[in-house]
Amino acid sequence: MEEKRKIVEGLFELSEGLSEAGYLVGSRCKKCQTVSYPKRVICPNCLEDREIEVTRLSQVGRLYSYSINRMAPEGFTAPYITGRVDLPEHVRIFSVITGCEPDEDALQIGMEMALVFEPLRQDAAGNDLYSYKFKPLKNG
């Protein structure tokens, strides 16, 4: 199986197989327990620079806000949704939202969202570039 190409290195790790197999890479300060994303070398809370550890972030969060984008930069097709998802580690993640139509009624603030990994766009050679996205978590 061909290795999936990441849009940017260091933001997430991918596992082979399902699109849900992977995680966001954050950092945790051992001194004050602040979690950051993306990972940092200095804690933004207490400025500690020796007690920072890499940590996996949760794969489920809650939708904080979203926007339906009706104009798109190169490589994107409008309309599409972007939003912010709050994770249990008290980190708010900016993300493309997938798994639903770009319609006002498709999402609700506070709904559960699941982390997935999908192609975001293609590089100049036509290879898919993978990124993290969030999708509504369907109950039952």
Protein topology:
Elements: E1 5-6, E2 12-14, E3 22-29, E4 35-36, E5 52-56, E6 60-69, E7 80-87, E8 91-97, E9 112-122, E10 128-136
Parallel strand pairs: 1-10
Antiparallel strand pairs: 2-3, 3-4, 3-5, 6-7, 6-9, 7-8, 9-10
Description of the molecule:
By secondary structure, the protein is an all-beta fold. The protein has one domain (5-136). It has no helices and ten strands. It has strands at residues 5-6, 12-14, 22-29, 35-36, 52-56, 60-69, 80-87, 91-97, 112-122, 128-136. The strands form two sheets. It has a six-stranded mixed β-sheet, with no helix packed on it. The mean pLDDT is 91.
Number of domain units: 1
Beta fraction: over 45%
The separation of the N and C termini measures: 32 Å
Q: Report the sheet with the most strands, covering strand number, pairing sense and barrel closure.
A: 6 strands, mixed
Compact overview of the structure:
This protein is an all-beta fold.
Descriptive labels:
140 residues; mainly beta; four-stranded antiparallel β-sheet; 10 strands
